[in-house]
Amino acid sequence: MSLRKPAYGTIFQINMALLGASGFAFAAWAFWPDSLKWWGMGVFSLMCGAAAPAMLIRAVILMFKLYQRDKALAEFEAEIPKAETIMAAQGELEREQNGRQVLQKMKARVEQGFWVFRAPVGYEYVKDKRGGKILVPSEPLASIIKEGLEGFASGRFASQSELMRFLEGQPEYPKDLLDGRLRMFTITRLLNKPVYAGYVEAPKWKIPLRKGNHEGLISFETYQRIHQRLNETAYAPARQDITSDFPLRGFVACSDCSRPYTAGWSKSKTGAKHAYYRCGYRPCASFGKSIRRDDLEGKVTELVRELEPNKAGYGLARAMFEFAWDLRQGRSKEIKVEINRQIDELDSKIAKLVDRVVDSDVPRITEAYEKRIEEMEQQKLIMVEKRENGAGPKHTFSQMFELAMNFLSSPWKLWESGDLTLRRMVLKLAFPEPIEHDRKTGCLNPKKATIFSVLGGICAGKKMMVL
């Protein structure tokens, strides 16, 4: 867009000055007298002759000013692109400086133990008295995530798929897809976030793991167990076709090949349907041999009934466990001293490794030392967390293990309820390995969980004492 607009007023004045100069010049010539008799006309002619150059000079001055104006505007227009470039560069510089300042502040906040990214599921931001915002648990999502993470760490959820189905079954938990499902990547990210353990880190900014200022949903030890499970051999995902028709699928195995039975329905000549378990491993001698569902489930039911201890044996076992729990609480001071000793030992080892890193010039050796230092730092974090939370248990035996002891006292009650989930939970807790079934003899060869073996031994000993 040009800034040089036509100066109509100045042009009009120039033209009028030129016209006036012409008029006065003509008048001076026309009125010049031929004799002295008309000397007055001569005076008028002289006056017009003097006015004509004055008007001409005025026109020339106006034209020069108009030329100077147009020249200045032309030079200014030529400088406009350069000015725009300078302003754009200045704006970009300001944006970069603002971004750099924001990044520096975010890094400083992370180094101080504050989470600066989007609030993870189960948390929300609130204003902090120290300035800025801090994460706080958001219910009921916080309790749901805590249950899921602790369940995966303890083995309650044998795989990420089972954890995913647990979260999909919670109406409050946000879903990824419109059909109410979650992506497996969401579960993987959930299990790998140290923020749920009360810690923060920023690998992209080279900020290592450190204690956060927010409240963790799980302990750092639980977070470590989750990582150990993720690094172990993966479990097969829970089957989606498990129904109440065949609750033992996956828990009873063939004694010839030690592989879990499969199950299905068979139709007789009369059209009646019959339920069977069978071995599905082709090289096995028992491949395709069917076992009636009612017979197999009846034997497993009797096996579960045998798990229930008598009242006297259960009371003695409870007293022994409670005594051991109280004894652990009484040793809290000794445990705290031992924890401090282990922390000091780790600090000494870390210092030695740091000296080796400084002295080493081989990249491979340096990388190995740094990895070992990181592992020791995480062990130290666990020890510090135990020391801060108290060396001994925080709650009484009844508060911590009431539900567990109720289950141990009568697993038959859960089995008798008929609920598929409860029945599979009983089998998972009571038998760590599939129960082997001999098709020929019909005998079961179960490997009971340690706690039930201990209870069985106590009850047997109690009976002998009574006899």
Commentary on this structure:
The chain has 467 residues and is mainly alpha-helical. It has 3 domains: 8-110; 123-231, Alpha-Beta Complex (Hect, E3 ligase catalytic domain fold), CATH 3.90.1750.20; 256-311 and 401-466, no CATH class. It has 14 helices and 10 strands. A 3-stranded mixed beta sheet has the order 5-9-10, with no helix packed on it. The chain has a 3-stranded antiparallel beta sheet with strand order 6-7-8. A hairpin with a 6-residue loop joins strand 9 and strand 10.
Q: Which SSEs are present, and which pair or pack?
A:
Layout: H1 8-30, H2 39-111, E1 123-127, E2 133-137, H3 141-154, H4 160-168, H5 184-191, E3 199-202, E4 207-211, H6 220-231, E5 252-254, E6 262-267, E7 273-278, E8 290-292, H7 293-307, H8 311-330, H9 332-359, H10 363-389, H11 397-409, H12 411-416, H13 420-430, E9 435-437, E10 444-445, H14 450-466
Parallel strand pairs: 5-9
Antiparallel strand pairs: 1-2, 3-4, 6-7, 7-8, 9-10
